[in-house]
Specification:
The chain is of the alpha+beta class. It has 3 domains: 109 residues, Butyryl-Coa Dehydrogenase, subunit A, domain 1; 102 residues, Butyryl-CoA Dehydrogenase, subunit A, domain 2; 147 residues, Butyryl-CoA Dehydrogenase, subunit A, domain 3 (Up-down Bundle), CATH 1.20.140.10. 54% of the residues lie in helices and 13% in strands. The radius of gyration is 20 Å and the shape is globular. The N and C termini lie close together (9 Å).
Length: 380
């Protein structure tokens, strides 16, 4: 059952996360947006602070955050910079996949590198013509003639932090079905091309990844042939949707702060229509956090309802972020649209939240179909 108050430890972690973001992340958000990149030094600092793959249990070398603390970390990152939060998202998805589905050899080799930040992971599912529909993938993984590995051929696009990643979790079709592979950036047959000038999360260093007969050893297969869809994909996307939901709550908070500060200084907070927009932000942020915490607890408990809980949270919170960012711009008028205005960046980033890790339309379809079968609001 979702808790309505934080423990002392969680409050302390929240304060620590907020302080880190205020010092190291938020001051760089505008630069990340303008320069369309995040420095590797910040990745190293995130690793030093235990913020990369922070959900990995302590006995495996991770920080072992509980569901609530993990949600709070990603909320604070979303408040400070959605591009940095996106980095945590895809890296955590890769690391969690290795932990959950990788064999002992794969975990022993990669978990220490991913947790230390020595290797940055990127999630490579989406393709130019099929989007993120795993059932329609065209990237192929043909067994090598000598039986020891695969040759990967295909194109992945919109790959978050693909420009900076050291290893990609690539999904491809094998004779036994969709499978997942870890593909090192420096392997022959892989070409990474930047995808610049995106609408939002412009610091997330998107890339197109082309594989042209790229030889992958059998040891790099994650979870066995034909097991990536739906098992690996669903588990990874569930964690990703939780992060987007939490980051969207962070956007709501940032928009609320900007709008309230401006309206107070200009004396417009006395107007009822401005009060209505502020009130909507407050309530949406609190409701979104509760949905995100519920989703996090379901994931940590490995509940069968976790994927749907994460989908619901991502759907509500990303809508709330888009509404809050739009209203913050409206409260500030031209000042909210000016170059370098945080609200302008929040507005663009919030739109991206409505698309990544499953668009609104995909979420609506999933929620509507599930509720049609389930028949109640009491599930989960």
């Amino acid at each position: 059952m979702t808790q309505f108050s934080l423990t002392e430890d969680q409050l302390a972690r929240q304060g620590s996360f907020r302080g880190f973001v205020d010092r190291e992340v938020a001051p760089l958000a505008d630069r990340h947006d303008r320069e369309q990149r995040v420095d590797r030094e910040l990745v190293d600092l995130l690793a030093k602070e235990g913020m990369l793959a922070s959900q990995i249990p302590a006995e495996l070398g991770g920080r072992g955050l509980d569901a609530v603390s993990y949600a709070l970390l990603h909320e604070e990152m979303g408040r400070g910079c959605s591009s940095v939060r996106s980095l945590l998202t895809v890296h955590d998805m890769v690391t969690e996949t290795v932990r959950r589905f990788g064999g002992p050899q794969l975990r022993q080799r990669w978990l220490p590198q991913l947790l230390s930040g020595q290797a940055l992971g990127s999630f490579a599912l989406t393709e130019p013509d099929t989007g993120s529909d795993a059932a329609a993938l065209t990237t192929r993984a043909e067994p090598a003639p000598d039986g020891d590995g695969f040759h990967l051929t295909g194109v992945k696009r919109w790959i978050t932090f693909g420009q900076l990643a050291d290893v990609f979790l690539v999904f491809a079709r094998t004779p036994r079905g969709v499978s997942a592979f870890l593909v090192e950036r420096d392997r022959p047959g892989i070409v990474v091309r930047p995808v610049p000038d995106m609408l939002g999360t412009r610091g997330s260093m998107l890339a197109e990844v082309e594989l042209d007969g790229c030889r992958i050893p059998r040891a790099n297969l994650v979870g066995g042939q034909g097991r990536a869809h739906p098992f690996v994909v669903t588990h990874a996307l569930t964690l990703g949707r939780l992060s987007v939901a939490c980051g969207s709550v962070g956007i709501v908070r940032a928009a609320l702060d900007e709008a309230t500060s401006y309206a107070t200084a200009r004396g417009t907070l006395r107007h009822q229509l401005v009060q209505r927009m502020i009130a909507d932000m407050v309530v949406a942020g609190r409701a979104g956090r509760m949905l995100a915490l519920r989703a996090g607890e379901s994931i940590w408990a490995r509940s069968p309802g976790a994927p749907m809980a994460a989908t619901e949270a991502k759907y509500f919170c990303s809508r709330a972020a888009a509404d809050a960012a739009r209203d913050a711009v409206q409260v500030m008028g031209a000042a909210g649209c000016a170059p370098g205005a945080p609200t302008a960046r929040l507005y663009r980033d919030a739109k991206v939240m409505e698309i990544i890790e499953g668009s609104h339309e995909i979420s609506q379809s999933m929620i509507g179909m599930f509720r049609h079968r389930d028949g109640s609001l009491a599930h989960g």
